[in-house]
Amino acid sequence: MADFFVTAEGRKALSRDGASESVRIARIVTSGEVLYILAEDRAPLAGYPVVPEYWRAIFALRGRLISLSVLGLPEAPMDPDQMRRLLDKFVSRVHSENP
Asked: Is the distance from CB of 69 to CB of 59 less than 8 angstroms?
C-alpha cells in the first residue's frame, strides 16, 4: 500500500480536492498492520480551517478498509509528533471498540 500512496493516483486518493498536485507525502511508516502517512495537503477542507500537514492511518478491520486522520487547526496547532500520538490513540480506540 505504501508504494501506491507515493504515486499520482495515491496522492489523488489522499487529496481533499481530488488533485494529486495538492498533496506532498512527507513520511510513510508502518506499525503492525497500520500504514501511517504524514502528508501535506494544500487544498481547503470544505470550508474548515485546518493546517496543511496531517497524519493519516490506514488499516483493514473486519473486512473493511479504515482511514483515520488527525488534522490540526490554525488556532490550536499541534506538531507532527502530537498529531501522531493522538492518531495512535484513535487507532487503538477503533480497534478496541471493534473486536
From this structure: no
Cell of 39: 502528508
Q: What is the pLDDT of residues 50-92, one digit of tens each?
A: 999 999 999 999 999 999 999 999 999 899 999 999 999 999 9
Neighbours of 54 (CB within 10 A): 23
In one letter, which amino acid is 1? M
Burial readout 9-32 (b: 16 or more C-beta within 10 A, e: otherwise): ebbeebbbeeebebbebeebeeee
Mean pLDDT value across the chain: 95
- Give the chain's domain count: 1
Contact 43, 24 (CB under 8 A): no
State which residues form the domain around 31: 2-97
